[in-house]
Amino acid sequence: MGCSSHLDSIKGVQIWLSSNVWLFLVRGKKLHKSILCRGEVLLLGQCCGSGGALGGSGHGAGAEEGQVAAPHFMQPCPQGLSIVVGADGCPFPTVTLLMQPKPENAITIAVSSRALFRMEEEQKIYNEQGVEAYVKYQLDHENEPFLPGAAFPFVKALEAVNTQLRELYPDSEELFDIVLMTNNHAQVGVRLINSINHYDLFIERFCMTGGNSPIGYLKAYHTNLYLSSDAEKVSGAIEEGIAAATIFSPSKDLEVSEKQLRVAFDGDAVLFSDESEQIVKAHGLDMFFEHEKAHENNPLAQGPLKGFLEALGKLQKKFYSKGLRMECPIRTYLVTARSAASSGARALKTLRSWGLETDEALFLAGAPKGPLLRKIRPHIFFDDQMFHVEGAKEMGTVAAHVPYGIAQKHKRPLQEKQPQNSK
């Protein structure tokens, strides 16, 4: 492959290094070498032959410093781009570099820093000592990675799906794109980046608003789902028409799949509107059953997370089209308090009318959801009622509260304290 013809097409692209590498630069007739550290960003420059500096050129066999290097050019690979540093036999690694999908093509998941990582100690310092002490603590500890938070297994599962999608569709940008959306100060960014690199997460887009609410940026980032530990910010996102939920850490650890993303949804006021719940609250269950039977063939209006289920289904179909339905790394569940015989048909017919489906539909007729969720072991479960969120948490499930619909007028106080400056 010619140097200039290939490299001109990627000139100016920024790439992230997934491990420490030697970088060889040719300037004039001299060879310069340096170490680029894992996590650094490299800007692709000019072709070696034009005298510019380009990451990815290596020295030829037996080349010494000061000699002209025989460059090794960038080659396309299934997972993005790779840089070969060094000639055959030289002890330099090949680095796989994943290209960031365009936001308009990706399924964008925005997570807050306190959803992704455990930051209780830092939040305590902020609440008790103020922002200056908080920032100083973060700077003093920026080389200490945060512990994983409630959303961490979910994010890891998203990236596992991306890996399989890239293997099947090397050129596709229909991938999950995780954005860190936080009102943290920019000085805290180094510790966040160090933590992300420590756990080998691929999170390239940050929004750090320095104490201001990040909600106004969600649409600009093409957000499909926003997860935060701050109930007030989540409510603000819902009001902006963005799928959002307040995520809670479970009371106990429960092992989840590392290869298959599992997402469980409640039906009413989550996937569907709260139309039916309004009937229950106003007129009771008997009237609800009559209403559902009479309107069985009338689809329910969409709820706040319908679009996210639709996005998951779109990616599932990419695996189905390759004959991999049974091996699909995404599995979805409808877990509803509805009864199957008396009110289940309308829920299923509504999904069908949207061209959507869930892999499993579980109608509990009012029974607790926690024990069943423990069997499913989803990475996240969405529900509009804190009663079910708390039940899921107690059984070890990461649960997320969707503050939407009539149930919010009847909700109990949240069981987890929401700090004023939740990140």
From TrEMBL:
InterPro entries: 5-nucleotidase. GO terms for cellular component: cytosol. One of its GO terms (molecular function) is nucleotide binding. GO terms for biological process: adenosine metabolic process; nucleotide metabolic process. This is 5'-nucleotidase, cytosolic IA. Pfam families: 5-nucleotidase.
